[in-house]
Structure formats: C-alpha cells, structure tokens
C-alpha cells in the first residue's frame, strides 16, 4: 500500500514537470513564430519600399527620357503615367487628360503611302499577345506631323501588370522617305505622258505632308493673258475655284496675283483684313479660307511660271520651318511647269510644222480655178487646228479703204440686202494699228465699242468671245487680214498659234495674189481695156453659144448693133481722150440698162453689140429704142454734152451664122444712119 501511495507524489510531480515543459515549449514556439512574423513583416515592408522606390526611379528615368513614355492600365487603358514628351506630343497638361480618344487622331493626309494606325487595336493586341511594335503617325499641337516608332509591352508596375508605351520620334526619316517617294512619283509623272496637273498634285502633296492642316494649290501663268489658272486640283468648292481662276497678275489681285506681280513672297495672315482680297473675300469665306501665303514659282531665268499658295482655315503665318519645307516643292514645281511648257511647245511645233507643210503644199499646188475651194479648205483646216468657230480672209481694196470678206469658213451669210461683209479702214483702225505694232491683234468683246462693232460683224451669231487677226502682206502693204473668231470667252490665243498662222497668212497672201494675177490676165483676155465690157472675142463666143442653144431648143434671140453717131467729129473737136470718155460713158449707159441675162460687148471702135437671149425681133427693137433714149438723154463730159447712138437689130433665124446675124443688124444700122442717125432700125 505504502508503495502505491509513495508512487503517487513522484507521478504528480512528474506530470507537473511535463506540463511545465509543454507550456514552456509552447511559449517558446509562440515567441518564435512571433519573431518569424516580425522578420517577415519587416521584409515585406522593405520589399514594398523597394518596389515603390524602383517605380519612382523608373518614372524619374522616364521623366528625363528622350523617348515618349506612357503607362496604361491593361484593362481600361487609362493612363497612369505619361512623361513630358508624351504630354507635349498630345498637347495636354496632365496624364489625366490623356484618353484614348485624344490619342486616336484622324488621318489628315490627302495623299499618303501610310495608313492610319489604330492605336486602340494595338493596345488590345499588346494586352493579349504581349509586346507589340508599330509605327504611329500623329499631328502635334502646332499642326506638324510626328511619326513614332512605337512599342507596347506588359510590365509589372507597383505590384501590377500594366502596359508600357514607348515612342521614338522618327519624323525626320519619315518625312524624308515620304517626300522622296512623292518626288519620285512626281518625276515619273513628268517623264511619262501624265498631264501637268498630275505632277503638280504630287508636288502639292509633298508640302502637305509636312503641313497637314494646310490646303495648297499651284496656279500657272498664262503669259498671253497675264492671268493665273489652277494648275493643281485643290479640294476647294466650285465657287472658290471659279472666282480665283483667271486671276490677273497684278498687285492687289488677292495674294497670288500680287505675289506673281512682284515676283516675291506675299503673306495674307488674315484675309478679312487684307483689301487685296476685297473682290474674292466672299468666295474665300464660302470655301472656309482664312489665310493665304503665296510664293511665286520662278523659271530658271527668273521669270514667273505661276504661284504656290498655302491656305489655312484660320489666320496663320508661315514659320521658318514652313518656308524651309516649301523650298523643295517650289523647285520641283518650277521644273515641272518648265518641262511641260517645253514639251507642249515641242508638240505644238511639230503639229504646227505639219500644218504649215500641208497648207503650203495645198496652196502652192492649187491653180486659179481651184483657189476658192482650196482656200476654203485651208480655212476649215485652220478652224479645226485652232479650235475656233470661224476663219475669214478679208481682202483690202487697192486704195486700202475697204476690207472685204472674200472667203470665210463656215460661210458668212450675206446681210439683208444681199451684201457680203466689208469693213472700212476706219472700223479697223485700232486692229490695224496693233497689227503694225506687233504683227497680230486680238480683240475681245466688251473691251471697246469699236472692237465690239468689228466683232459683231465678223461673228454675228455670238455676243461674247474674241478674234485674232494677222496681216496678209504684199510688199510692205497690208493687202488683207486673216481673221479667226471664237465665241468662247475663255479661249486662249497662244503665242504659238499666232506664230503658226502668220506664215499661213503669208502663203495665203501669195496664193491670193497669184489668183488675182490669173484673174487679171483672164479678165484682160476677155475684156476691153477701155470700157471694161467684154471684148470682141468673148462677144463672138457668146454669140456662138446663143446660136447653139437657140438651134437646139428652137428658140430665138435678138442682137443689137449700136454705133456712136458722128464719133469722128467728137475726136476731132475735143480730142481723143474726150472721145475715150464718151465711149466709156456710152458703154456704161448701155450696160447699166440691160437685164442681167443680157450680154453686151465692144464690137469695134465705137460699136457695141448687145445680145438679148430668148427675145424676138420686135422686142429686141423695143429694147434698142429704150437704150438709145437712155444715151440720148445723157449729158456727156464734152462741151455741148450731147451724144447719140444709132442701132440695127436682127433676130436669130434657124441656120444663121454669126456673120448672117451681124450682117443683118449692120444693114439695119446702116439704114438708121442713112435715115438721119439717133434711131433704131430692125432688119427686114
Ligand atoms: N477716141 C477714140 N476714138 C476711136 C476709138 N476707136 C475708134 N475711134 C474713132 O472713131 C471714129 C469712127 O468714125 P467713123 O467710122 O468715120 O464714123 P463716125 O464719125 O462715127 O460717123 P458715123 O458713124 O457715120 O456717124 C474714127 O475716127 C476712129 O478713129 C477709140 O477707142 N477711141
């Protein structure tokens, strides 16, 4: 028993010790855990401090970086950080203002080899697929383009994964690349057979590439009219294009007309405040044009070829950078315009040479009989070559007082009295002076009343347009005019056209004088030099024709033989010259009082023969009597003024020869003389 009770105490003590040990151990473990926790917490705090430190360092690094940097939330794409360069790039003051909408800018380029970069889609791609690299084109606050070589990468930042954007400015390279590309295309356009406007459009795009908010246009100079015409095809509204087209080269004619006139830079910072725009301000307002900077495009020898204008929709002035950027396009524009002008000249020269060659052959090979059709076809040809409505040859009279339209294409209708067109020396006074001064003359409607009168006569079907006249010269005399008319108000008479038609006028002149000479010879061969009536040879021909016709159709015709009474006495008393005058006057009296179908010729010295087709002997007698009376009533340029004629009439009988007919008329005339003269006898 004792033994058991003696065991209890040690057992209790042992248990107590064990319990104590357990408690001490637990306490020790708790203390240890606490210690560990403390260390861990210290470490965590340290690492958080280090993360913050490294983010701060990262930002400090970015703040001073030459690269644009933005840190964006992976999910909502909000901007957590943006360095100064990035803020400046987007034109905002803080990262809070940077939304994707602000960053997503519209493509401002009318012609560009690059397409718009959709930034938001790149953000999405970077979030899903990891790092992305792309080129991004933006327009900075000042309106200049900026190209970035951009990367988007997912990185840990302040304990989270975020998207880091970096952008390296590659604008200089991009501008060089793009302008090179455009320059090459412009050169290709110039060397190929594209129109000038295609090359100028590309040259304009070269400048717009560096100045996207500008609207640019090149105008080319028409040297002849001294006006500027649209050379490139700017995207302005129709009313602005119309209002500015044909802009005169004059200081005061908007910015371009002024720049071309002073051959130097003109800047209109605010169109509203520039009175050179008074006439064009309304059109500018409608087109949304508020400022204009114009540089003359100068040729290699310094003369003006056109203007290069830069328009903005707000008041604006070019900076040094803009002026610098325009140097290349300006040079190229000058090259293009000169090249096209040279090409145009060459092509026109070839066409003109061909034209002159063809016309020359045509004019030189035509004889007098084909002159009319030949000249008409030349005029037709020239109308088509110059693309005008009418061409005319105005032939000057010997004394130079009248210019008569002898040829015209298309035909000029005679006036109400059946008269053809003729202009007096007075009417043509100012054109003729201009022709003497510079070798040609261009007149426009509504330039002067005198010019309007001339144009109304030359082109009655038009009340607008213009006319070019070049001289037809014989010796040193203007013997006629070659005129071209167009109803097109905008028609441009090119120097080249004038140079082409001038030699044609000379060729026409010699063809016409050849024809005139031939006509003169023919006239002389058929006419009596003194009276201008047909001569005996032609009269016999006509008699032969009448005999043939009457015998074929069974008709008759009458013949009157007139003889001046006592003409020898006129000669003897007043002289041969007075005799001649009397003969001329008798001839005029007879020829002025016969019908159009009748024929009169000088048969001999003071004898005249009249043929009356389809007229009986009796009627022939009446006609003869009538004519005799006309002569008898006439006062002649001799002292007593009286001259009479006697006449013998015969009529065709079947089988008659010329001799038979004339013989009978002569016999009747003889009787008239015998009976006392100043009377008519018909043959028996
Ligand atoms: N002035 C001039 N005289 C001419 C011309 N041709 C002929 N004569 C002249 O005309 C005259 C004609 O005279 P004659 O035949 O004798 O007849 P006439 O004197 O008219 O008398 P009758 O016929 O009998 O009335 C001649 O003296 C000619 O010399 C001419 O072209 N000019």
TrEMBL record:
Record keyword Membrane present: yes
Keyword Ribonucleoprotein among record annotations: no
EC number(s) recorded for this UniProt protein: 2.7.7.65
Keywords per UniProt: Membrane, Transmembrane, Transmembrane helix
GO terms, molecular function: diguanylate cyclase activity
SMART domains with a match to the protein in the record: GAF, GGDEF
Reaction(s) catalysed (UniProt annotation): 2 GTP = 3',3'-c-di-GMP + 2 diphosphate
Cofactors named for this entry: Mg(2+)
Start and end residues of each GGDEF domain: 555-684
Transmembrane segments: 6-25
Domain of life per record: Bacteria
CDD domains found in the cross-reference section: GGDEF
Class in the EC hierarchy, top level: transferase
Pfam family, one: PAS_8
Protein name per UniProt: diguanylate cyclase
């Amino acid at each position: 028993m004792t033994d058991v009770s003696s065991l209890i105490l040690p057992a209790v003590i042992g248990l107590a010790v064990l319990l104590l040990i357990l408690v001490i151990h637990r306490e020790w473990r708790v203390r240890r855990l606490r210690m560990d926790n403390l260390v861990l917490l210290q470490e965590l705090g340290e690492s958080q401090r280090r993360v913050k430190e490294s983010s701060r360092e990262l930002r400090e690094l970015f703040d001073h970086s030459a690269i644009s940097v933005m840190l964006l939330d992976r999910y909502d794409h909000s901007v957590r950080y943006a360095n100064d360069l990035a803020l400046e790039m987007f034109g905002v003051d803080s990262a809070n203002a940077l939304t994707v909408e602000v960053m997503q800018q519209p493509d401002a380029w009318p012609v560009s080899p690059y397409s718009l970069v959709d930034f938001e889609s790149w953000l999405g791609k970077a979030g899903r697929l990891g790092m992305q690299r792309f080129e991004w084109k933006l327009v900075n606050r000042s309106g200049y383009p900026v190209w970035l070589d951009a990367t988007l990468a997912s990185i840990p930042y302040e304990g989270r994964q975020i998207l880091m954007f970096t952008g390296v400015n590659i604008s200089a390279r991009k501008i060089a690349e793009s302008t090179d590309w455009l320059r090459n295309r412009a050169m290709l356009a110039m060397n190929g057979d594209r129109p000038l406007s295609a090359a100028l459009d590309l040259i304009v795009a070269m400048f717009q590439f560096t100045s996207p908010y500008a609207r640019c246009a090149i105008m080319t100079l028409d040297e002849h009219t001294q006006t500027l015409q649209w050379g490139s095809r700017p995207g302005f509204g129709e009313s602005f294009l119309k209002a500015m087209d044909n802009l005169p080269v004059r200081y005061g004619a908007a910015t371009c007309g002024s720049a071309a006139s002073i051959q130097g830079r003109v800047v209109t910072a605010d169109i509203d405040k520039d009175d050179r725009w008074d006439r064009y301000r309304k059109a500018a307002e409608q087109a949304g044009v508020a400022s204009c900077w114009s540089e003359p495009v100068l040729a290699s020898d310094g003369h003006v070829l056109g203007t290069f204008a830069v328009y903005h929709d707000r008041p604006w002035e070019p900076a040094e950078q803009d002026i610098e950027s325009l140097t290349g396009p300006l040079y190229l524009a000058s090259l293009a315009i000169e090249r096209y002008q040279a090409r145009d000249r060459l092509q026109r020269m070839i066409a003109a040479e061909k034209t002159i060659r063809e016309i020359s052959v045509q004019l030189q090979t035509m004889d007098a009989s084909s002159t009319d059709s030949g000249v008409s076809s030349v005029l037709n040809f020239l109308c088509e070559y110059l693309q005008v409505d009418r061409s005319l040859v105005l032939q000057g009279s010997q004394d130079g007082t009248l210019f008569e339209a002898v040829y015209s294409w298309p035909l000029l209708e005679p006036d109400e009295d059946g008269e053809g067109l003729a202009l007096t020396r007075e009417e043509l006074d100012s054109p003729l002076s201009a022709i003497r001064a510079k070798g040609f003359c261009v007149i426009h409607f509504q330039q002067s009343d005198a010019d309007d009168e001339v144009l109304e006569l030359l082109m009655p079907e038009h009340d607008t347009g213009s006319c070019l006249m070049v001289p037809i010269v014989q010796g040193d005399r203007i013997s006629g005019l070659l005129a071209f008319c167009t109803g097109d108000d905008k028609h441009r008479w090119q120097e080249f056209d004038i140079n082409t038609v001038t030699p044609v006028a000379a060729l026409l002149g010699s063809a016409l004088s050849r024809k005139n000479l031939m006509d003169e010879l023919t006239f002389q061969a058929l006419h009596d030099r003194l009276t201008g009536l047909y001569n005996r040879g032609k009269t016999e021909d006509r008699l032969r024709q009448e005999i043939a016709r009457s015998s074929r159709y069974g008709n008759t015709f009458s013949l009157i033989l007139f003889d001046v009474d006592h003409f020898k006495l006129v000669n003897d008393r007043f002289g041969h010259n007075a005799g001649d005058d009397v003969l001329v006057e008798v001839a005029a009296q007879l020829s002025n009082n016969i019908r159009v179908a009748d024929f009169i010729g000088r048969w001999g010295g003071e004898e005249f023969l009249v043929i009356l087709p389809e007229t009986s002997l009796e009627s022939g007698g009446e006609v003869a009597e009538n004519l005799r009376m006309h002569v008898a009533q006439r006062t002649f340029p001799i002292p007593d003024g009286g001259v009479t004629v006697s006449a013998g009439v015969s009529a065709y009988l079947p089988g008659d020869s010329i001799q038979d007919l004339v013989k009978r008329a002569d016999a009747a005339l003889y009787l008239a003389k015998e009976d006392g003269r100043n009377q008519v006898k018909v043959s028996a």
